[in-house]
Amino acid sequence: MKVHQIDYSSGSVTSCIxxxxxxMILAELVNLLYSMVDRIYIGHIPGxxxxxxxxxxxxxxxxxLISAFARLFGFNGGAPxxxxxxxxxxxxxxxxxxxxxxxxxxxxxxxxxxxxxIFHEPILYAFGASDITYPYARDYLLIYALGSIPVLLTxxxxxxxxxxxxxxxxxxxxxxxxxxxxxxxxxxxxxxxMGVKGAAIATVISQLVSMIFVVSFLSxxxxxxxxxxxxxxxxxxxxxxxxxxxxxxxxMGATNSVVQLVCNKCAFIWGGDIYVGVMTILxxxxxxxxxxxxxIGAGSSPVMSFNYGARNGERTRxxxxxxxxxxxxxxxxxWIVVFIAPHWVSMLFTQDEAMIEAAVPxxxxxxxxxxxxxxxxxxxxTFVALGKAKQAVFFSLFRKVIIVVPLTVILxxxxxxxxxxxxxxxxNIVGGTIAYSCMRHTVMPxxxxxxxxRKREGK
Length: 459
Prior knowledge:
Layout: H1 13-43, H2 49-57, H3 60-88, H4 91-126, H5 134-145, H6 148-163, H7 167-191, H8 195-218, H9 236-271, H10 273-309, H11 313-340, H12 342-347, H13 353-366, H14 373-385, H15 389-410, H16 412-415, H17 418-456
């Protein structure tokens, strides 16, 4: 098929971001269907849906951690470096970055699969499993882990498709797998009565199909940068650059895993199994509604990276400013929806009236400061896109580890179970404001200097 490639060096910056972001948002939403459809179907299994959903929720921190490695090698690591190299016109370096990222993702997927298969029981109990929920979590996780390599290769290498301007292909990548997952889930769960095992099998098969498509496209004739075995020779300096820049995205994913672990533990201590189920609903809703915000950040990243590599400060600055504007609009709409209709949102995941009753006030508290995610995303993504690894890593740790985790543990002593939910809006407000302010203070003068240099050179 013939596909359109976006030129990040010319035309309206708004158009570049939207043409990249919209397919990526759709792709992210579709990608969520892998786990979201699992949760919806599992939550409605007759007689055991609530317990099965809680067991599945225990797997989320582990799944988040596995997915975080895709950010390390792809979206936040190799892909921005690849886009900057393309902006400089250094296609050889861009190709080697992609090849090294591919091999790093494949090797890491194998190691993670082995770790989970061997140590799944102590891991799940450490993450808050009880004797009631453990069998459901185990059945799902052991099968899901077998797909670690396809998961990492699909997510990592799809970032390189997007960074070359093929956003529509990036959307098709996850669409193929998600549609297959939607078809297989009810078939395996309800028709063949495989329960959570069927959901996991459907996910693994779907990710495998997506991986085959990604690798085929990147090996074909329509891309500037092709996957070549000769570029998969790991070089220490290049790997350190990939991992160094990708650490910020990995930290975001890994700290999400830590936060989910702490939240599940505290929810169980202060509210029992039912509030572990509530946390599953909160995390599910957050993933859905964070997707447009993250998609805008992902869509603006290659625009900023390419133009930063080309030393065009004006276009880079415009992309950063538009990221904030678009994210703010989306996050405001999300906050309104959750505030007005928390009962309806909860019913997507469970029919248990007790769990819905507990989830309604929890949703309103948890999403109170969601609009400040616009500042966090804009500041964080600008640092990543411009290769500012140290700043990006610091603000990843700052919001989650320094603010959320301590508050999640401390606040319940003062306000009970709702303290677990209250930590999130506080971190959004404080972390988002500080991250964006520091980005403006450090990055904008550099971009202004770039423009002055271009004027002197007559460009």
